[in-house]
Design brief:
single chain; 357 residues; alpha+beta; CBS-domain; 3 domains; three-stranded antiparallel beta sheet; three-stranded mixed beta sheet; 13 helices; 10 strands
Length: 357
């Protein structure tokens, strides 16, 4: 049997681990071995199966950490568990017997969205010393388009945070404000494994928090802008899919009888009742519209084959969105959702359907 280049790579890593080494790689590079750019659920499953086959796992877990973080390959075999002589342990790989007293450790998958996954939490911030003159502080903020700067002694010791707000407050009150120490305010510091939701509640009036990672180093600064961008990345696909499904279901309810709508239901799904388009999945809506006779009932000049082909791609994107890829969907997938939603808004948003060549 021919061994793939991926198999040879993982076998070499497994041999290094067996010899006591701890090879490292970035998550992004690991994904590239599987011709992927993001940690979608199918890719994650494929990677886990491949690692398990070679009795490997990563620490930290490749799914839980930042995509450009480095992870170490270690053995997934635990040898300190007693064996049962009458029932030898079975490996999760293809049901093959393992050596008595060993078992393959499955990774503890963390479902929580943690700030360690965010790019800004992994970008060490520019900071100023406590005695930096106000002119230097302001120049750095203007030059880098920052609203705030950490005030630190070194990469581990945090003194405070200077911002346009703290400067304005001190000057308005007539208080001394000639150095960073005099102009700064307090700032919250959270561990990198804090949840995103916890971090949002800690932003406070400064609109920023600092992130402390390994070796107690400050690894990043998170602002309200970072959280806005993160939630837009996570929420926009859901909103666009909702708009697409609502447009389709309104149109289907207007054009089809209850019996015709029921005919689109997956015949294998016997436990679900379908009375209207809202009871159909997006895939079932696509199945209903792909038939020429059904399409004609919509009384639209949109091109059926082009529309149905694009809708089928939207169904595929929806599956990725609903399985919650921690890195978000690909930019081309998001662009596809935006364009299809815009098409439906133009064509059906006002109840009229313009002719499209």
């Amino acid at each position: 049997m021919m061994v793939s280049s991926l198999g040879r790579r993982l076998a070499a890593i497994a041999e290094q681990v067996e010899q006591g080494e701890t090879p490292e790689e970035t998550v992004r590079e690991l994904l590239s071995w599987f011709y992927a750019e993001r940690r979608g659920y199918l890719i994650v499953r494929e990677i886990r199966n491949a690692l398990r086959k070679h009795k490997l796992r990563t620490t930290p877990d490749f799914e839980a950490t930042y995509i450009d973080a480095r992870v170490r390959f270690v053995s997934s075999v635990v040898t300190d568990q007693p064996s049962d002589p009458e029932s030898p342990p079975i490996s999760p790989i293809e049901g093959t017997p393992e050596i008595a007293g060993t078992t393959t450790e499955r990774p503890q998958v963390d479902p929580t969205q943690r700030i360690s996954r965010l790019a800004s939490a992994n970008t060490p911030p520019l900071y100023v010393g406590p005695d930096a003159p106000l002119g230097e502080d302001v120049t750095q903020m203007l030059m880098n388009d920052y609203s705030q700067l950490p005030v630190m002694l070194n990469e581990r010791v945090v003194i405070g945070l200077i911002s346009w707000q703290t400067i304005a407050t001190k000057l308005a009150l007539g208080l001394p404000c000639s150095t960073a120490r005099e102009c700064m305010g307090q700032v919250r510091v959270l561990a990198a494994d804090a949840s995103i939701l916890e971090a949002i509640t800690e932003l406070g009036p400064q609109g920023a928090i600092l992130v402390r990672g390994d070796a107690q180093k400050i690894t990043g600064i998170l602002t309200s802008t970072d959280f806005n961008d993160q939630f837009r990345q996570l929420a926009e696909p859901f909103v666009l899919l909702g708009e697409i499904e609502n447009h389709l279901r309104v149109r289907i309810d207007e054009a089809f009888t209850t019996e015709e709508i029921q005919s689109a239901k997956n015949p294998d799904d016997t436990n679900r009742t379908v009375e209207q388009a809202a009871d159909l999945t997006l895939g079932e809506c696509a199945r209903l519209l792909e038939k020429p006779n059904n399409w004609n009932k919509l009384d639209t000049d949109l091109h059926r084959k082009t529309f149905v082909k694009q809708l089928a791609e939207i169904v595929g994107v929806r599956n990725d969105v609903m399985h919650f890829d921690p890195d978000g969907i690909a930019s081309e997938q998001l662009d596809r959702l935006r364009k299809f939603s815009r098409l439906l808004q133009i064509a059906w948003g006002n109840g009229q359907s313009p002719a499209i060549e």
